[in-house]
Amino acid sequence: MDEISTGLDSSTTFQIVTCLQQLVHITDSTALISLLQPAPETFNLFDDVILMAEGKIVYHGPCCHALQFFEDCGFKCPQRKGAADFLQEVISKKDQAQYWCHADIPYQYVSVNQFIEMFKASNLGQTLAEELSKAYDKSWCPNSALSFSIYSLRKWELFKACMSRELLLMKRNTFVYVFKTAQLMLTAIITMSVFVSTRTEVDLRGANYLMGSMYYALIRLFTNGVAELSLTVIRLPAVQKQRSFYLYPAWAYSIPASILKIPFSVLDSLLWTGITYYVIGYSPEVTRFLCQFLLLFALHLASTSMCRFVASIFQTMVLATTVGSVIFVLTFLFGGFILPRPSLPPWLRWGFWIFPLTYGEIGITLNEFLAPRWKKMLNGNTTMGNSVLTSHGLNFEGYFYWISLGALFGFTILFDLGFILALTYLKPPKMSRAIISKKRLSQLQGREDQERSRQPENESIPAHNAETRKTKMMVLPFVPLTMTFKDVRYYVDTPQEMKRHGFREKKLQLLSDITGAFKPGVLTALMGVSGAGKTTLMDVLSGRKTGGFIEGDIRIGGYPKVQQTFARISGYCEQSDIHSPQITVEESIVYSAWLRLPPEIDEQTKSRFVEEVIETIELHDIKFSLVGIPGRSGLSTEQRKRLTIAVELVSNPSIIFMDEPTSGLDSRAAAIVMRAVKNVAATGRTTVCTIHQPSIDVFEAFDELILMKRGGKIIYSGMLGHHSCKLIEYFEGISGVPKIKDNYNPATWMLEVTSASMESELELDFAKLYKESPLYQETTELVQQLNKPPPGSRDLQFSTPFPQSRWEQFTACLWKQHLSYWRSPEYNLSRFIVMIVASLLFGIVFWQKGKEINNEQDLINILGSMYIAVILLGINNCSTVAPYVATERTVLYREKFAAMFSPLAYSLAQVTIEIPYVLVQAFLYVAITYPAIGYYWSASKVLWYFYVTFCTFLYFVYLGMLLVSMTPSVEVASMLATAVYTILNLFSGFLLPGKKIPKWWIWCYYLCPTSWSLNGFLTSQYGDIDKEIFIFGELKTVSSFLEDYYGFRQDHLGIVAAALAAFPVAFAFIFAYCIGKSNFQRR
């Protein structure tokens, strides 16, 4: 069991380990448990301990002999030191010296290897080596203790268990599936109403419109499975972990995941066919209705399976989305509609047969155009239906419908098998340590050396004065402030689950009559059992709550708290340690100082202050390391904790809150963090921490304690005293409370004696006893005293809502975004690669077709090359930016609460940084495709082509940002994006020209940015071409065909240019509004 105590209080941890100890002793089982910061009483429950350092075992033997072994090595555990804390620190080079116990022998560092040699030479080590040298005797272990199977259950039981689990997850994700289906229904209704005007035309022109509606149905059902990609990526870490524990094989998860999606494929396909089939005007035979439904069902199934397969191979959201976009580009490119099979280069026609969409296209067109109503004979012996099929390279026999259907089911099986194999054999992404480049590191270190060389030698301070130095180093002045709170209550709406169990109150009270004070230079701990309301109280006092109802009086320096000004003088270290992953430690601190320190402070002073904070929080050794992503790369948990403290401390706050700064850390790391916290408090700041499992050293580093019990009630508030004497004196003075044992951790003891079970046993209410005690009276009198503003003081006031001007805010945000983008190759490099690959593909497939215009199909083929670039490359930009923006949005929430900048400055920086990258994308696309496709060479035409490309890619990026800002997560954003892509596709003017769109939908055509992109592309290249070509059997010029068929005119290019510039601007400002107003963080 790995770190089972993280997030639990010490009393709960003790109870859990006690149960495990009894289980092991009674059943004669074997248990190996790793713990962080175990209390002495918890440590004493173990029989053996394995102490490791540098990947080697230093000690392996009984817990009761561990201290004696190290004492024999010359190191003794102090009386009030926990054994576990001592064991971790005695092997550390920085902490070892304090435990040296031989006064007559000078201390010398004992390395890990030396400890190992001493252990091997000891009796314990020799005994262990002797046991390990003996051959294993099978008779020692009965057969019943051996496992003869990898998995604990039979195959059928494994399948049923995974099926039940998957069904439960789907039930709890009902919103996702209902939302998808509702989207599809709405899209089907829109599609039906758009194509309704084509239902009476049974001719070549009508067939072309009908082909557009069928192709749209195919791509809508095909892309409806895209949400499965993000859902699979999110679930993969849990599945891979469970698979590594041999809970079940990959097939046991994969098969239920596939089977349970079949009903949704049936429902979606049936809804689409039922809504659109007869209204659009397909062939009225019932059998053909059923055939179209069956084909769409098979296509939807294949798409869902393909997305799961892609997610299982690439495993991260950005990579899976990027590769998925490339696959969709290839699928649509070779699908047979954008470019018919006869128009493909002969050596690329094999690509027509390897994608699922091809078989959907073949099946749905054969089902329609071999119907009786298309049997009308044209010139010669060809029917109208065959003529349509031949022009698109789909002139197959009727039985090929069933081959297409079988091929789609075959693709589904193939992708599902690939999904199983990927989960079976592919390993999850490994965690990596992100550091800054060597070149940049050498530059920074060189600059640092120069700065140090300028400092006089007499400024060095002896090591024994380190603490004095650290308290004096805080060179920036600040106003020490008290915080008082009286009768604070906090309510939330009663959850529905509690109402169903008989709770009748409309509001649930989480905090009850909380009264207390936080003072400058005093380090205060907020403690209590899990669920007591510690973090809730801290969030209420700091103004971080986004919901609920707060009552009571909160004052700062004697004046009523105003959140806008309080945010400027306070810091809040969140438990989750949220930071931008691609920024170094130093850059994170510089960024915070840049935006949060007042502009009156000069740059040199700011730089010095940043360096001093780095030294105070002991971050100097890692200041050039990238922060990274928790669990995947970058800093360790302990380093992130210290960075969080530094980022808040550099704002020079008067009051600083820290939510569980030692959770998830081992004893030594917790000691380092608490040393940093103590340094902060020593500067005269008001410092408050919530804390769960403190060791004796950590607990007694605090000056005051507020202890809470469940229900949000205070049961102790006051000084701790030397060795916690005041706390112990208070609780031991209560009749019936057990006395504390010698060398027992006071933090653990107080939680044990004030637990709910102890209250019940003693028939006491500790909250009531506290309110009747002199301690409460002292606290009340102190609050009344501090509630009066000191003479000569004045309320907090600032002339501006933010420390820096809007331009400085924008500059700082742009600086950070630039660094983040430059160090994000997974996002930026991948989209450049996709752009190059896609452009080369377009150039090859449409090679020199730009001037080969002889009939309407040739022109439609060229429009198809523009359409696929607009839709698919635009969608790739839109989808790949979403995870990046979502990651930065979590950082934004923290920075907004800290009043670092206005949302407008942040959002403008976010949209501005995209411009150079989109410019590069547009340049790559134009440089490759323009000469390869062979458009008419002209400086104006090339510039128009570049302008339209740039605007198109840019508004798609901004659209992705906008969708994320409007939704609570990437998953919901991707589902909403699917509906948006549908509209952008449907009203682009490619599937159905604008002149054929019904009057009630024409407004949507003009509001659709893709219609303006296609207008700009086609008109700028062919709007002035007077070459005569055959259009549906008639001779017309290219320019007149564009005007008659599409409504595109050369003299309207100015309007098109203005519209294309307006869309990215509009999306950017809506994004700025949404990112500022929307807050999906619930506290």
Please describe what this structure looks like.
- About 55% of the residues lie in helices and about 10% in strands.
- By secondary structure, the protein is of the alpha/beta class.
- A hairpin with a 2-residue loop joins strand 1 and strand 2.
- It has four domains: about 10-140, no CATH class; about 165-425, no CATH class; about 470-785, P-loop containing nucleotide triphosphate hydrolases (Rossmann fold, 3-Layer(aba) Sandwich), CATH 3.40.50; about 805-1075, no CATH class.
- The protein is elongated and about 110 Å long.
Low-confidence stretches: 451-474
Return the structural class: alpha/beta
Total number of β-strand segments?
14
**How helix-rich are the residues, as a percent range?**
55-70%
Structurally, how many domains make up the residues? Answer: 4
Spatially, the strands of the biggest sheet line up as: 8-9-10-5-11-12
What is the mean predicted local confidence, pLDDT? 85
Strand content: 5-15%
In the CATH scheme, the class of the largest domain would be Alpha Beta
Major sheet: 6 strands, mixed
What is Rg? 35 Å
Anisotropy-based shape: elongated
Report the end-to-end length measured between terminal Cα atoms: 31 Å
Tally the helices: what do you get?
42
At the third CATH level, what is the topology name of the largest domain? Rossmann fold
Question: Architecture of the largest domain in CATH?
Answer: 3-Layer(aba) Sandwich
The CATH superfamily label of the largest domain reads P-loop containing nucleotide triphosphate hydrolases
